[in-house]
Automatic annotation (TrEMBL):
Keywords: Decarboxylase, Golgi apparatus, Lyase, Membrane, NAD, Signal-anchor, Transmembrane, Transmembrane helix. It is an enzyme of class 4 (lyase). It is a single-pass type II membrane protein. Residues 11-305 form the NAD(P)-binding domain. Pfam families: GDP_Man_Dehyd (PF16363). Belongs to the NAD(P)-dependent epimerase/dehydratase family. UDP-glucuronic acid decarboxylase subfamily. This is UDP-glucuronate decarboxylase. Its EC number is 4.1.1.35. Pathway: Nucleotide-sugar biosynthesis; UDP-alpha-D-xylose biosynthesis; UDP-alpha-D-xylose from UDP-alpha-D-glucuronate: step 1/1. InterPro entries: NAD(P)-bd_dom, NAD(P)-bd_dom_sf, UXS-like. The keyword Lyase applies. It is found in: Golgi apparatus, Golgi stack membrane. It comes from Methylobacterium isbiliense. Its cofactor is NAD(+).
Amino acid sequence: MVSYRRTKRILVTGGAGFLGSHLCERLLGQGHEILCVDNFFTGTRRNVEHLLDNTRFELLRHDVTFPLYVEVDEIYNLACPASPVHYQFDPVQTTKTSVHGTINVLGLAKRVKAKALQASTSEVYGDPEMHPQAEHYWGRVNPIGPRSCYDEGKRCAETLFFDYHRQHGLPIKVARIFNTYGPRMHPDDGRVVSNFVVQALSNQDITIYGDGRQTRSFCYVDDLIQGLIALMETDSTVTGPINLGNPGEFTVRELAELVVELTGSRSEIVHKPLPQDDPRQRKPDIERAKRALDWHPTIELREGLVRTIEYFRTQIAA
Ligand code: NAD
Ligand code: UDP
Ligand code: UDP
């Protein structure tokens, strides 16, 4: 009799980070065994502390730029700092993480015949001329600027995924993730949602970079995690890349005003210089995700912000 092993052994690199910790939690909830690998550069043990008692959860401190020999069925490759402040702190290490790290992950996947999913990013579109951004758009990325270590590293990681697929027949999935926010973002992460919420809750000035007319589309973490898992579960005909994000588009000023309203803050809105190469607009075209994954985000910005503000309130009080 054929016996089906429904429980999978899943490696999540970057599993102690913001998205990784939510992903580990969700996959554990589905009954799988999780190996969470992280070097704690931006992630923390605290993010996964509540999972440590679960016998199906294992945490390993390891830098993915070094080889890793483990036995797994699936790999979610999330290891890489995501906030501009953090990925620009040690740009060479950022590129190494995306390039050497991805080679190691793919070498591992090839050896154990595991399915691998890459957490790519809307940053592969750079400062886009096409709006909204669809997957067939090749992007407009500066190869030598301060954001390049992240953008080009992620582009090279996509190349590696597709070459291991073509050259070695590896089953792959590539998700292009757009700005995602929610509980467990690091308070000093430097990204716009965590910055504004923390500033508003502590009645500090809210720092808009530039005139605040640049746009972003913000996806709540629970929606994103559902999209990632749905992508991993597709059959072998679906490789991606597939955009995952919430198409609701807001200016940074609108976000600041919404955060002030929802927190009831006395903070003033102030302006600071716009960082170099800051993309002017960003909004995902998610038609492919809707068709291939039957997925679309369900949590609007206002609702997601209320939940995020609640989380940061408890953090600031603690
Ligand atoms: P995060 O910084 O919270 O998580 C990244 C994790 O990777 C951290 O736990 C960090 O310690 C770990 N890490 C970094 N370098 C490593 C290395 N060399 N070896 C092992 N672990 C390493 O960021 P996040 O928002 O959770 O992002 C997770 C992934 O999703 C990243 O790959 C990021 O590029 C991608 N992504 C995120 C967003 C977003 O808006 N959150 C958008 C697009 C893409
Ligand atoms: N690798 C790894 N774990 C494994 C298998 C490979 O970390 O289980 C690393 C290995 O160090 C190698 C990389 O993945 O540098 C790429 O492996 P691949 O087999 O594709 O290439 P090769 O070993 O031929 O360079
Ligand atoms: N931003 C801002 N104030 C902040 C942090 C960010 O105005 O305190 C702006 C930033 O310049 C960018 C947008 O908000 O235009 C999103 O920035 P984030 O770092 O969150 O993500 P990314 O630029 O990678 O999309």
